[in-house]
Automatic annotation (TrEMBL):
Keywords: Hydrolase, Metal-binding, Zinc. SUPFAM superfamilies: Metallo-hydrolase/oxidoreductase. It comes from Salinisphaera aquimarina. The keyword Hydrolase applies. The keyword Transferase does not apply. SMART domains: Lactamase_B. Its cofactor is Zn(2+). This is N-acyl homoserine lactonase family protein.
Length: 260
């Protein structure tokens, strides 16, 4: 059944990096500016955050920024983030607080998606078992240990499931071991699939190009997820929303406007 939904795209930071990070084998020496997005999704059954962006303190504090992000250069520049782009700041502009969030759904555990957990302490956090298991190996780049210290209190799932009525968690592994996308029903108009980092750019979808980083270099699984998302979109007439595509982001409502 279709649901009344409001979706606020939240620009939590921007990130400049070599394009090959997003498109495997393409874009060497070509640098792009990418949005780091989270989404506030309001349903008749509660409010859900899809991802939470970066840890502001690691970006705003020079010593921490150097410690965490200098080793990523020149492939990545440190993210650029303001106080106003923190999740609590966005919520305050809507007259809300963290207490008004019913759950946080994490697509995966990389720092630009899970780092902001420090700003939503106390929220119910959903994650995939495969993602936690991979993080526990210590072999995953892009995860900062302090950002997953609360994992023992998270709600851990295995596979697709209904997050709340109208929102369905969709398996899309490859970029990471337990990466998840989100299918959103709407009362009017096409459903929406938040691809997460299964598809950073529209190019990943259009040309079926895997992300530059794949868990254990498994390009085949990443491509299978892209094709699965496209197949789901065809069957349901859903829109596919890539996650780090600046041109696409510029087509979305500017906060505090929302998509419904």
């Amino acid at each position: 059944m279709s649901r009344d939904i409001r979706i606020w795209p939240l620009l939590t930071a921007t990130h400049r990096y070599e394009k090959v990070v997003s498109t495997r084998g393409r874009g060497h020496s070509e640098y792009i500016d990418a949005p780091i997005l989270a989404y506030l999704i309001e349903t008749s059954n509660g409010r859900v955050l899809y991802d939470v962006g970066c840890d502001y303190h690691k970006i705003a504090t020079p010593a921490l920024r150097a410690h965490y992000f200098d080793p990523m250069r020149p492939l990545f520049e440190p993210p650029v983030m303001t106080q106003a782009q923190r999740i609590p700041s966005y919520l305050a502009r809507l007259g809300l607080s963290i207490r008004d969030i019913d759950l946080v759904f994490l697509s995966h555990l990389h720092f630009d998606h899970a780092g902001g957990l420090c700003d939503v302490a106390g929220c119910d956090v959903h994650i995939q078992q495969a993602e936690v298991d991979a993080a526990n190996t210590g072999d995953v780049s892009g995860i900062f240990a302090d950002e997953i210290e609360g994992a023992a209190d998270w709600r851990v799932h295995a596979g697709a499931y209904e997050v709340v009525p109208g929102l369905m968690a969709i398996e899309s592994p490859g970029h990471t071991a337990g990466h998840m996308s989100l299918f959103i029903e709407r009362a009017k108009g096409a459903p929406i699939i938040l691809c997460g980092d299964a598809a950073d750019l529209r190019e990943n979808l259009d040309d079926e190009v895997a992300p530059g980083y794949c868990w254990r270099d498994d390009e085949a699984t990443a491509l299978a997820s892209i094709r699965s998302l496209k197949s789901l979109a065809r069957r349901t007439q859903a829109e596919l929303w890539p996650n780090h595509d600046l041109a696409f982001f510029n087509t979305l409502p500017v906060f505090p406007d929302y998509f419904s």
